[in-house]
Amino acid sequence: MTVDKTSIEKPHNFIQQIIEKDLAEGRVAKVVTRFPPEPNGYLHIGHAKAICVNFGLAQAYGGVCNLRFDDTNPEAESEDYVNAIIEDVRWLGFEWDGEIRYASDYFAQLYTWAQYLIGEGKAYICELTPQQTREYRGTLTEAGKNSPFRERPAEESLALLEQMRDGEIAEGKMTLRAKVDMASPNINLRDPVLYRVKRIAHHRVGDGWNIYPSYDFAHGQEDAIEGVSHSICTLEFADHRPLYDWFTANLPVPSTPHQYEFGRLNLSYTVTSKRKLKQLVDEKQVEAWDDPRMPTLSGLRRRGVSAQAVREFCESLAVAKTDGVVDMAQLDHFIRHDLNDNAPRAMCVLHPLKVTVSNWPEGEVETLTASCHPNRDDLGSRELSFTRTLYIDRNDFSEDSSLSRKKFKRLVLGEWVRLRGGYVLKAEEVIRDGSGEISEILASIVPNTVGENPPEGIKPRGVIHWVSAEQSIDCEVRLYDRLFSDANPDSGDKNFLDAINPDSLEVLKGCKAEASLATAQIEQAYQFEREGYFCLDKDSEDGKFIFNRTISLRDNWQSKV
Ligand code: ATP
Ligand code: MG
Questions:
Q1: Exposed, middle or buried: residue 441 (CB in 10 Å: 0-12, 13-18, 19+)?
Q2: First to last CA, the chain
Q3: 177 among known catalytic residues
């Protein structure tokens, strides 16, 4: 699949239309959006879409976007996740308005509002067990029943809420519920829970709270406090919107935000659920959250994908009221497009085969200059050392001279090939080791052929990459493939772990890279000519180079399956 970015229509999406109407009619003076991650895992490519939508709309309409951590479930959350998320949002190229915000900043305010609802006769402490609560809730086709605690006096509920907060009530014993409508066809309105007892410390506010607000009770009120004008979330929250509106209508909140929902991004050949990604990490199916095979932003970054490629991919996606699965090939397209334009070229031999140039004097080094990019002069040039011993790729050599010139545009015994940026070379003899495998090629160069055509009668089959044996660096190369071999690993009742591609990582040791790569920076991507795009991995240390394959030059996936 190829997607031409320029051919993608960018219709005005429905949220832009709403915003423009709100601004034109004066309902909203300034666009305020927010990105509200829960710090219970790392951000993935789906979050990138939400980030681009929220920050992008604020930018487009001269507004601001807040970064707010939805840290209301302390059991699953941590400071490490907070820090990783901050790093990822910045990397993606966005800056939030003012300080970073936290739902936990508003715990005291939310508590006061809970007391307010109780005082208004709109909330009560319920002592049904979780099992009973489920029974009383009813079903999609049957109305629920009122809790026997529904009419308990406000003073009693207020006192019990305080006891819940002070850690005097066991978990699961009591909840604070809003008094909405147990017969509502929308189950979210059947007296939803506002507070649960959780006697655990919070990573930010310590152990002062023994109750934590539900998402529904927290989210809209946080939006109201921050003056969010357009609270944009994914479709699964559409059924929660009536409750969102119920709270802002029934509480003395300082502003009235509105919620809008758009389709989640799902990507083929991967999963975009923090819970599942965490499982991959916990079960050591991958190295960590930032394993280059992960669809996390940190994984993509470590793999060598640029923030720009991710942003452009997100911009190519529809912001619509339906969920869909986007083909991984579409993301790959933007990754390749960006790297083709921006990655400096270099040479690295992945399966080295030694070549000795018999007509090149021992110890003589000629410095050749090669440009770093065929059409980006600004990326400059690099030096390549030509020496008597070289390495070429084992796959670029054959003894079989019956191979057609069309099919095998590489080096064949008795024939010529051009070394990229260097001389025309002739293979003259092979040397084998004890097991019969070719261990070396004896060759000769055609003099005066750097940048020049060889004399009449000498026809190189093609151009191959190479490095000097004396002046190259040893490296490890990690070839990554898709993590799943099923396009929809978690659809239906499939267990996504069954779809893991057993060949998603191949490690090549003893690869040889041109000496200029000794100064490569971590995450800086290169095109290794004829091989693909690669970047230096963070596991590299002094003198130990590890390169990750970001992506192959072309899409080979279809031909492999
Ligand atoms: P997950 O299911 O991966 O845990 P989540 O929705 O629980 O995702 P949050 O941290 O709550 O994760 O998400 C922060 C914001 O990102 C929310 O507004 C959410 O709607 C949005 N978001 C999460 N996943 C996607 C996705 N796949 N596509 C678009 N937006 C997403
Ligand atoms: Mg969530």
A1: buried
A2: 15
A3: no
* Ligand 1 binding pocket, CB closer than 6 Å: 36-38, 46-47, 49-50, 70, 233-234, 264-265, 272-275
Q: What are residue 166's phi and psi, to 5 degrees?
A: -80, 5
- List every span in the chain annotated with CATH 2.40.240.10: 274-345+475-555, 351-465
Ligand 1: atom nearest CA of 264 is 28
Domain 351-465 - what CATH class? mainly beta
**pLDDT tens column, 245-291:** 999 999 999 999 999 999 999 999 999 999 999 999 999 999 999 99
* Residue whose pair of structure tokens reads 């980030």 in the numeric block: 51
Where does the chain hold its CATH 3.40.50.620 domain(s)?
29-262
Question: What b-and-e string marks burial along 516-542, b requiring 16 or more CB atoms within 10 Å of the CB?
Answer: bbeebeebebbbbbbbbbbbbbeebee
What CATH homologous superfamily does 274-345+475-555 map to? Ribosomal Protein L25; Chain P (2.40.240.10)
Task: Give residue 438's region: left, alpha or beta (phi > 0; psi -120 to 50).
Answer: beta
Cβ atoms within 10 Å, residue 248? 18
Does pTM top 0.85 for this prediction? yes
DSSP per residue, 151-196:
T--HHHHHHHHHHHHTT-S-TTT-EEEE---TT-SSGGGSS-EEEE
- Rounded to an integer, the average pLDDT of 233-242 is 97
Domain at 29-262, CATH class: alpha beta
Q: Whose CA is nearest to atom 13 of ligand 1?
A: 37
Q: Which residue has the tokens 């793999």?
A: 303
